[in-house]
Specification:
9-stranded parallel beta sheet, alpha/beta, 9 strands, globular, 326 residues
Length: 326
């Protein structure tokens, strides 16, 4: 078998506290591609790593689309970009009352975290003040942990969020550094990295991941996984592209379930202690896939409504999580 690699040896290396190299990760991907039966061994190994190193604490969070549409950035995947013609809803920053209501619903459903998400490069100064006020109100009126995803903020703005009660900041790298420029030209991945570093300096946990299925290679997915490892990201959302009519990626062919599961398993080998958070794009996949993803390395999820696509049946997914995490 070409590109042969011992999956169990690399599993044991990770379990012993070691790290795998890009070359070793590439060989893992290649052996599964060459020998489909090796996929079962890869999933078994990644499951073992998850259980031993990531713990048995499944992390559920929800989001509120607090400002939608008319984004000046030209991200090829995004329905909210003003550069694309989509049917996405367009509205300004929601009221504090609506935000509190949404957070209370999430808390009642058992979610641990609630994230305020806005479209656009970043909020205006006035919008950021309102978001900080929302956060302070949420801290008084709920017991849920708070996150925010507001674009390319600087250290001072992120410190203000921290002081208002936000504990984690989200900014996806989206894809590898070598592929990002083919999908977005109005900002760079380096600017995202600067935002994530500034968030950490402000005392915030960081959440960053990407979207798979945008035409990138498996090597580029691994490149992203290693970038996230280098940043020591604790929460890594893995989104699956949901092609949206009117965006440049509308005709992108979907990934197979096997490709998605292999990607999850490889991310687990590379980021053994992280929350690998299954996020957007999975609504078109069935519950059987969700169960397989839990086994392959997923130990967190964004549940319920997504930003611009349909969400999932929370009750059914929670049942599967409870079954898997007994």
């Amino acid at each position: 078998m070409k590109n042969a690699v011992n999956i169990d040896e690399l599993r044991d290396k990770v379990l012993a506290g070691g790290v795998i190299s890009p070359e070793e990760a590439g060989r893992l991907a290649a052996v599964v591609e060459d020998d489909k039966e090796a996929g079962a061994a890869l999933f078994e190994a990644s499951h073992c790593i998850t259980e031993k190193m990531a713990g048995r604490d499944f992390d559920m969070c929800s989001i509120v689309n607090a400002k939608s549409g008319l984004c000046p950035e030209n991200c090829s995947w995004c329905a909210q970009s003003a550069h694309h013609r989509t049917n996405v809803s367009v509205y300004g920053l929601i009221s504090e009352e609506k935000c509190v209501e949404s957070a209370r619903e999430s808390e009642a459903a058992g979610f641990k975290r609630f994230s305020i998400v806005t479209s656009g490069r970043k909020p205006t100064r006035r919008e950021l003040e309102r978001i900080c006020s929302m956060s302070e109100s949420l801290k008084r009126k709920t017991g849920i942990s708070l996150c925010a995803s507001l674009g390319l903020l600087d250290r001072e703005e992120l410190s203000a969020l921290k002081q208002s009660g936000i504990s984690r900041y989200h900014c996806n790298l989206e894809t590898s550094a070598s592929y990002f420029g083919k999908l977005c030209t109005t900002h760079t991945q380096q600017q995202k990295l600067e935002t994530l570093r500034a968030a950490a300096e402000a005392g915030l946990e960081v959440c960053s991941g990407g979207i798979i299925g945008m035409g990138e290679t498996m090597e580029q997915r691994l490149e992203l996984a290693f970038e996230l490892r280098d940043l020591n990201v604790a929460s890594i959302p893995i989104n699956i592209l949901h092609p949206i009519k009117g965006t440049p990626l509308a005709g992108q062919a979907p990934l197979t379930e096997e490709e998605i599961l292999v990607t999850i398993a490889l991310f687990r080998f590379i980021n053994p202690r992280a929350y690998l958070r299954l996020a957007g794009g999975r609504s078109s996949l069935n519950l059987s896939f969700f169960e397989k993803a839990l086994y392959a390395g997923i130990n967190a999820a964004i549940m319920g409504a997504m930003l611009t696509t349909a969400g999932t049946d929370v009750k059914d997914e929670v049942k599967l999580i409870e079954k898997s995490y007994r």
